[in-house]
Amino acid sequence: MRTYYLFYILISYFAIVVLTSCRKLNEVNQDPEIEPLRHGFKTSAAVGYCASLAYTYFKGESLPDNVIIHSQNINSETEAGIMLVSIDDSFPLPFNTSVGQITIAGIWGDNGGVITALFTDIDILEAKYEFKGIHTIPVIELEDGRIMTLFAEQDIIIGEGSDTLLHLNMTNPQINMELGRLGAEKPVDAFVAVQQNVWFITVNQDNTMSDIYDDEYTISGGGQIAEITSMSGGVLYHAMIGTKFRYSTCKFNPVSGVGFIQNLKFGNQTDLGNIFLNFYDRCDGKAFVEFSSGKYLKSFHKNVNLHFY
Questions:
Q1: Which residues pair with 271 in a beta bridge?
Q2: Could you tell me which residues come within 8 angstroms of residue 256 by beta carbon, excluding any fewer than 6 positions away?
Q3: What is the pLDDT of residues 254-269, one digit of tens each?
Q4: Are 275 and 263 spatial neighbours (Cβ–Cβ below 8 Å)?
Q5: 105: which strand partners?
Q6: Residue 291 lies in a domain
């Protein structure tokens, strides 16, 4: 009888250990949740695309065949214009398969310009949120010939947009005030970037202004495009530091730089998991997990699918 009792205790203990181990395993066995990083990257790519087209227009250079000048106005102080950009298989929006139209309105002053972009039938956020566009995007030329632009969380239009956003009427001091946003220091730390909700995009047109697809983009920034909740109930943030891509070279992933995803539980600010990704130039739609913790521990030192395209 005593032997049977001891056997029962051992079996019960073993069951508890197994159940506890399984529970702990499940807690670190969650697949990487790439969605917030995908939103940030694809939106940044779209903003850079629009900024490059607008800069080409205001510099008087030849535009691609998918761009029509809808209206233009020049006065003694500024130059303004509206472009209609057709997006299809021949002229795609980088990292997007939609067919639709982008309307870009811009105004250019002494030191740079400001643009706004409205998207029609273009599904950047993959139908979860109705992405309409982005307004008051500053664009400036750097000393080395590249251009820089940025957008912040409050610049994003989700839900009902308004065509009145296309009627930019700004003086040079107002334009310069918007350009002043570009004077902020670009983030170099992922943990800082996730809290800032600002994305900087630098575009190198490589002396071929009419060929939009050979531009080299560099993205640094992070935060949330729209709030995304993780499987574990936390809120997902992302950051990109020095993330580079050239669409004519690779249509599936960035080729260098760092991506970061953080899963935070509101209230007590519990850190549920982090992922640091290194982008590489194999153009296979993947990235390498340099470090992972918490919910994402099983992904450590593995390649993960990005689904950016």
A1: 264
A2: 242, 243, 244, 279, 280, 281
A3: 999 999 999 998 766 7
A4: no
A5: 82, 116
A6: yes
